[in-house]
Automatic annotation (TrEMBL):
The keyword Cytoplasm does not apply. Its main location: membrane. It comes from the Eukaryota. It is a multi-pass membrane protein. The lineage of its organism: Eukaryota, Metazoa, Ecdysozoa, Arthropoda, Hexapoda. Keywords: Membrane, Receptor, Transmembrane, Transmembrane helix. This is Leptin receptor gene-related protein. Belongs to the OB-RGRP/VPS55 family. GO terms for cellular component: endosome; membrane. The chain crosses the membrane at residues 15-34, 54-73, 85-106. It comes from Apis mellifera. It holds the Pfam family Vps55. The keyword GTP-binding does not apply. InterPro entries: Vps55/LEPROT. It is found in: Membrane.
């Protein structure tokens, strides 16, 4: 979040349009969380269409959060909505946020593992 806020609030940028990616941060894990609540853990042997649709929707949010700052920076050349520096800071924030979300899902998906076994 620090990179996204810096991309918006630094005196050279002074535009808060990149902050809209926070909406994607909030919406991205929701379909997967809902689908995992209603599915079994036997995903390797029996693929579930509900979970696959949820992952597809989640990936749509992820791609949109990377595309939004790029589209804002590539708007008309004479007067872009945001500068490229703000775009790069927002993309760095996206990478960190989504790596954190992947780590969360990987960590809490391993319920059947015991910690005291070798």
């Amino acid at each position: 979040m620090t990179f996204v806020i810096l991309g918006c609030a630094l005196p050279t940028y002074k535009v808060w349009w990149p902050f809209f990616v926070v909406l994607f941060y909030i919406l991205a894990p929701v379909p997967t969380i809902i689908a995992r609540r209603y599915t079994t853990n036997d995903f390797e042997n029996n693929p579930n269409p509900c979970l696959e649709l949820a992952i597809f929707i989640t990936m749509g949010f992820v791609v949109s959060s990377f595309a939004l700052p790029i589209v804002l920076a590539r708007s008309p050349v004479n007067d872009p909505v945001i500068q490229w520096g703000a775009c790069y800071l927002t993309l760095a924030g996206n990478i960190i946020i989504y790596l954190t979300l992947v780590g969360f899902f990987v960590t809490f998906d391993q319920d059947e593992l015991e910690y005291n076994t070798c």
